[in-house]
Amino acid sequence: MRFMSAITCSILFAIAGVLPTMAVATEADAQAEVPAAILGLGAPPAGTPVKYFPADAATVGYLATPDGPGPHGAVILIHEWDGLVDRVRQVADAFAEEGYVALAVDLYSGRTGSNREENIALVKQTRADPERMVENLNAAVAYLRDREDVSGKVAAIGWCFGGGVALSYALGGDNHEGTAIFYGSLLEDPEQMQHIHHEIYGTFAGQDQGIPPQQVEQFVAALRAAGIANDVHIYDDTQHGFWLYVDRDPETNLEPAADAWTRLKAYLRRVLGD
Questions:
Q1: Are 61 and 109 contacting, i.e. CB atoms less than 8 angstroms apart?
Q2: Nearest to residue 242, comparing CAs of 199, 61, 250?
Q3: How confident is the model at residue 29 (pLDDT cuts 50, 70, 90)?
Q4: What CA–CA distances, in Å, run from 62 to 47, 75, 77, 86, 158?
Q5: Nearest 5°: phi and psi at 60?
Q6: Which pLDDT tens digit goes with each residue over 138-177?
Q7: Torsion of the alpha carbons at 220, 225, 230 and 236, rounded to the nearest 10
Q8: d(CA 182, CA 47)
């Protein structure tokens, strides 16, 4: 399996000096490397609902914490277009197992979508008020930084709709230490990129019709022009959504998902510390 677009990789390695991660040797190794949550095998969420956004009592996030007093690095997880569902909560638990305080945010005031039409309506309503989204995420960062078990360093991670929100937040939110984008909407303007002050992580699907490889390459070129360090990979054979839902096509998705997870953990160590 050829994991990454050669063009994008050559740009990435020239900018960030990041060496390609070796493919996992066997399917069993790959399955052992990724969180059970993205295989559809996650345990019931074990964390806690939290009201982190004082401006909206209907907003309820999900908090997962690691063992030990810390201080720990922290991550905010930004859901896909259907809202804060159990798959995202289970992934928050996986980050806690890796030693991070994880807050899965809620941008839909407690609502979730159950079909395409509902999801589109929720996305449109939320995107219509970008200042509210930033306010919500700023509250999430503040909530985490106020905790005694958090080191003060926070990264944002988002998938699909949430990936685009994570990039927008890197451009206009409170200062934070990292942004990880999984197949989210992109920008191509180096001038706008000047507002980003940390390394960017990105994982994208080579068969994604909505965010094709050409857009990703233009995004990386814009990051390069702005002098922004990055670790951005395209996994050639995968479809949009492959990482959060490996179980949709495990034969194709498993090894790329394991590689992306290894890269993400290394990225978080770089921007948040061990």
A1: no
A2: 250
A3: low
A4: 7, 12, 9, 10, 15
A5: -130, 115
A6: 999 999 999 999 999 999 999 999 999 999 999 987 789 9
A7: 20
A8: 23
Nearest to 246 by CA among 46, 62, 90, 25: 90
6-272: CATH superfamily = Alpha/Beta hydrolase fold, catalytic domain (3.40.50.1820)
Nearest to 232 by CA among 197, 191, 267, 208: 267
Quote the CA–CA distance of 236 and 213 in Å, as a whole number: 9
Specify the pLDDT at position 17.
35
Please report, as a single letter, which amino acid is at residue 15: I
Structure tokens at 228: 């922004």
C-alpha 262, offset from chain centre: 13
